[in-house]
Amino acid sequence: MTEELFKKRTKNLALICGEFVDGLPSRKSLDIYGRHLIRSSSSVGANYRAVCRAKSQADMINKLKIVEEETDETLYWLELIEESSHITNNEPLNFLKKEADEILSMIISSLKL
After folding, report:
1. How many C-beta neighbours within 10 Å does residue 13 have?
2. In which residue ranges of the chain is pLDDT below 70?
């Protein structure tokens, strides 16, 4: 996958997470989980952009590790939302989990090269 395509994919993850959170029922715990989800998912794309501007190989690896951590955290918040709410339409949640998992797999593969 090209750098530009991956930038778009990570940005899209954040945008869809925002839309997903906006559609959640208004409950204190879901509001908190939702804010964390938006923060971590938007950090995936922001930190990937930093990867693209890395000054050295070591800098790039460190920034990729941050992307890995933020993507894993995004999956964590999605799991908490799934387990703490009674969402009737799981399609958006399942899409987000799949997308975050695929992004995480690609980042891990990049770190192993």
Report:
1. 22
2. none
**pLDDT score of 86:** 76
Please give the single-letter amino acid code of residue 2: T
Could you tell me the domains of the chain?
A: 3-112 (1.20.1440.60)
Q: What is the model's pLDDT at position 85?
A: 79
Which amino acid is present at 106? M
SS3 15: helix
Tell me how far apart the alpha carbons of residues 102 and 20 are, in angstroms, rounded to a whole number.
Answer: 18
What is residue 58's three-state secondary structure?
A: helix
Q: Which residues of 38-71 are buried (b: 16+ CB within 10 A; e: fewer)?
A: bebbbbbbebbebbeeeeeeeebeebbebbbbbb
